[in-house]
Structures are given as C-alpha cells and as structure tokens.
Amino acid sequence: MKYTVTGIEDNVFANKSALKEVTIPASVTHIGDQAFFKCANLQKVHSNNPAPPVNGFGVFISINQYAMLYVPVGSKDDYMATDWGRYFFAVIEEQVSSVDNVEVSRNPLDNVVYTISGQRVNAPDVNTLPAGMYIVNGRKVIINR
Questions:
Q1: Which residues contact 67 (CB under 8 A, 6 or more apart)?
Q2: Are 91 and 84 in contact (CB under 8 A)?
Q3: Is residue 77 within 8 Å of residue 56, measured between CB atoms?
Q4: Of 55, 2, 48, nearest to 22 (Cα)?
Q5: What single-letter DSSP state applies at residue 67?
Q6: Could you read off the pLDDT tens digit of each residue along the chain, which spans 145 residues?
Q7: Are 18 and 42 spatial neighbours (Cβ–Cβ below 8 Å)?
Q8: Alpha helices by DSSP H, 23-72
C-alpha cells in the first residue's frame, strides 16, 4: 500500500537539533504551526511543490540563520510572495525530479538511463546523450552541452 504525504503536523520536528536538511514532497500543501521551530542546525530545505505550501504560525522560526530554501524552477517569485521568503537566507531554484523508487542494477555492464519523466533511453554511452537531466544507473545526472 502506498501513502501520500499531504501535510506536516504542528511541532513535528520542533527542537530537533540533529536535523540539517529536509525535502518536502510536492504532495505537501500545508505545514503546521512551528513544525521546524528551533531546528537550529537546519541548513537546507527543498520544497518540491511548485505552489508554496500554506504555512502555519512560525514554521521555520529559529532555524540556522544561513539556511537555504530550494524550490522548483519558475516558482521562486511565488515563494517570495508568501511568508516562506522571510525565513531563509536565500531562495534558489532547482530542477525537481518526480522519479521515485529507482532500482539500481549492480551489473557494471548495464548502462541504465531514464529521462526525468521515467522513460528508458537506449544510450550506449552517456556522452552521446543530449543536454538535459537523466537518471543514470540510479543517480540524477545533469548534462550541459
């Protein structure tokens, strides 16, 4: 059975000093009051939803003062227009992959390549791929040409 996370409860990670990085899935639409309150070592937050989740009161109060927020390309302005922008030192756009549950072949002779949308690519060599983002042998790879 597969479950989808749509929200993060109040205070769920509050005071967790060991928390340094978190990825919030695209399915999350609401984050409860003070969910990450006083996570003093939280340095990176990746929010994969192009629409900023609705925040409760003080969600990111007292996190690391240099914490960075990473959001999907094209959504920075939307995040900055909400209370998300005030909690972070900087907001950076990044490519977000919706590929989950990647199986990795342990055979070094296999060169398994998928597009970010999950389509298998027949490529004898990674160097022959056009520019773009791929999953190669279970790892996200960005090719710039």
A1: 42, 43, 44, 45, 60, 87, 88, 89
A2: yes
A3: no
A4: 48
A5: -
A6: 678 899 999 999 999 999 999 999 999 999 999 999 999 999 999 999 999 999 999 999 999 999 999 999 999 999 999 999 899 999 999 988 766 555 555 554 466 888 887 888 887 777 788 888 888 877 788 887 7
A7: no
A8: none
Tokens at residue 119, please? 């389509």
CA angle 95, 96, 101 (to 5 degrees): 140
C-alpha 119/C-alpha 74 separation (Å) is: 24
Q: Of 143, 121, 47, 124, whose CA–CA distance to 87 is shortest?
A: 47
pTM, two decimal places:
0.68
- The H or E element that residue 78 is part of is helix 76-80
